[in-house]
Structures
1.
Amino acid sequence: MSIQRAFRDHLIDDIDVGGLVSARIYPDHAPTNAERPYIVLTQVPLTRRERHFLGPSRLATTTIQVEAYDNHAAKAETLGEAIRMSVDGLKGFMGTQAIDVRGTFVEGPDTRFSRPVDGGQTGAHVSVLEVEFHYRQDVPSRPVMAIGA
């Protein structure tokens, strides 16, 4: 399971966030006819892995951008704050596949107005956050090779 999918499951299961958006949490972009409020999760392309001279540390860091959309600024802010409260400082197992999260750090939320695009009639208020996950990740096992032997 990916960290993005585990994060989505976590938000749906959260009583405050799930209560506001139900299951309207989309990866990368929302459908054009998505009912508001909804959330879009976009994983920053690079997952960083901690390194050690003795081999893989099994610790990875991934950043996910969160955009919470609503028709009203106050409601977008409320949703953004509910997301922050749900995940900031989170440690433990997350998602149905139990990803071992060692820590999370949140930037935001910051709320702005997004103008309509593609001839649409109404814009949306968007609360934007960045969530950095530090988690344990399996790595392939390889035999240790002696150098210079």
Note: Residues 72 and 125 are 6 Å apart (CA to CA).
2.
Amino acid sequence: MIKTGNISYFSINESGLYSYGKNSKKMGSNSVEIFDALFSWLKDRPFPDTSPWEDAKTAGKKGIIYCQDKYFDEKNSAYAFVLWKSEIKGKDKHFYGIPANNHDDVVIFDGKHNGQDVIWGRPCYYIVFPKEERIVSIKFDDSLCDKELFCDWVSRVVSLRAKKFPYRVVEKNDDGSETIKLKMGDRLAHLRFEARLLYNPSTFASFKKFAKDVTGVVYKEKISLSAGANDRPRWLELFNKVIPYIGVREKDKSRQVYIEVDANPTAEEMQLAFEKHLEAVGSDEEPSMDLGFLRSKGMPTIWANDYRVKSQVTIEKNTGIFKSKELYERVLDDVKENIALGPTEEVNLLDQSAVSAETTNTEVA
């Protein structure tokens, strides 16, 4: 059976120790140290012990994340992870379980394991290139992609569990308990690990070219039709009152709403608007909102989300989930060029010299 995986790319924009307070600044450490400590902690650790959360109560609604499999490529200094997001509902043909007595085995939910100690859930596939500050996620029909939860898992493991992290300090309390702190020298610090969707910097350099043709700015957002009355934006309530006769199909769960504003922005203003949009959707694999520039003379609208870096991979796989090394070796050649793209936050978007060649793996939707 041929399986198609959608690959998303992320740029690690915050990684290391930061000071406390309003004017928090980076104090030290980096992604290389973070993943070295994390991988060392995972080594030879049983599957049920790979979560930094003690139980479902401390994890909350987001669920517990475990590490089902891992791989380190010394040549490229890259890490591959098969994480496991625990779930208790949605048991269908794409729902898997890991038996407590055999953590290397993966079973499909078929009703034959009722009463047995099985951790049900779905796999999440990630590859991390710490030196390049890149994260790659690969999502198949039977897997999940939750980049926010991945970053949270990394932060919690390194902050609370990874003894090899050189800034971790354990202090004894008078009652015999222990308090874990992170310190840079004598100063207290906290760990941040965050990433945003990667955009191809070559697309930004065209602002100067088409700024003269822009006639307006358009904002679109996919809104849920099931939101409660108190959860709806005020402008949407007004929309429903003014145009109540424009209905939707019964099966529709969402609706696209567009707001257009006449404008003739300069290239500098377009750059600022684009950057603000990237900040707003920077962590969403499938953003529900988009920003566009309307153009004259029938020219197509320029949508920001069309320029995120993404690609696909097809792999023959009969049953079960992928092992970390297996998937890493299969997609490595497909992602190498996109990994080399410069981070968007360091590119002068209006500098024509900043243009880098687009790769064959990059899709423009």
Note: Residues 324-339 form the longest helix (16 residues).
3.
Amino acid sequence: MNGAKYRADLPKYLYGIVALLNARFDEALMELELTFLYAERYKQSVRYEGVVYFDQKLREAGLYIGMAEELPLSALLEASFGEALQRFCSAAGRREEYIEELSARGGRLFVNHGRADDYIVVAKNVEVEDVGA
């Protein structure tokens, strides 16, 4: 290795250049599973566990995601995420202070960058798996 270490304060690339095939949310398990098509032939399964919130747009088949990354949960307070923060606070029925509480309990921010907007998921974990053609 070159001595580089993972830094939680820097973005972490997850997946990208994909189109959403389907989405399934299991409310009992608090899991969101997304199936994407990459390069018009390879399927990827993305499973978010311990989901606290996800943008409902992530249920729409055909949604294009240019890149998905993990950011510190505090990044949601930045001006560039204003609309996403507003949707999150509205859906959660909470104020911005809730973000600090979620972060302390292990909540993480996953941002799916689409063509027109960013679609967020607040969850404890994510797993990305190639499932073949």
Note: Residues 82-92 form the longest helix (11 residues).
4.
Amino acid sequence: MSHTTGRGPGRVERLASRHPLLLAASVVGILASLVTIVVGVVELADRIDADPPVPTTIPTTAGPTPPPAEPTPSGGQPSAATQAQCWSATVAAAPCESEHRYELLPGGCDLPTLASYLGGRSDLDVPDAEARLGVVNDRCVLDPGRTVVGSAAGILASSGDDAWRLCYDTAKASYMNCSLPHAGEFVATGRVGRATLAECTEAAETYLDQSLAELPELQVQAVTTGRLLGGCFVSARGSQHLTASVRSLGPNTLPLSNGGSGDHDR
């Protein structure tokens, strides 16, 4: 008689015949384990092969907020023109767009400040106006010596500058603005003491934007006046008169009264 060990197919067959539900549960459990293993392997393969995720936005480090842009003054005029304060000849407050005598001069009370406010250069331009203290309380004002309309800020850089430049009539021995017939025009050098003839020649040629050798009708001399120290005087020779400023004359015709153009383009 042969004996079995209780293991192997025979035991499985006996268990299947005696307990069919237990066998079915075992098979289902084994299949579920196999499915779990297969799914895990597939997910691992997908993770290995997939490209790294691309962010939809790239974070950046924010820098300091830039300051707001400064507004650009219109027409190239100093921004002070939009804040100008003016007074009448009787020192009553008046709009600068109306007739007035005085205008507030901010920043100082001297010739360099005055020339800069008017749009000129203190080492070259001589304005027909003065910086004065004590007229309007303790404020410094510019005084053109006459009533004017409109702010004077930047006027020396405009087409209306002749009326704000200082000229002189030797026949009448009087100062006047350069829009009136005159013998000559004052030019600054930036010196405190009396200028030399060489310094005046250089300043005059810069002022004219032309060599004096090309303008035999003009002469230049160093002067010291009550309004100007270290200045120069550019004048017409003989009895001729100039009818406009010679500032930035360049190659244009001299504005002479005896057959000159009486005007020039600048």
Note: The helical segments are 9-18, 20-49, 111-117, 197-208.
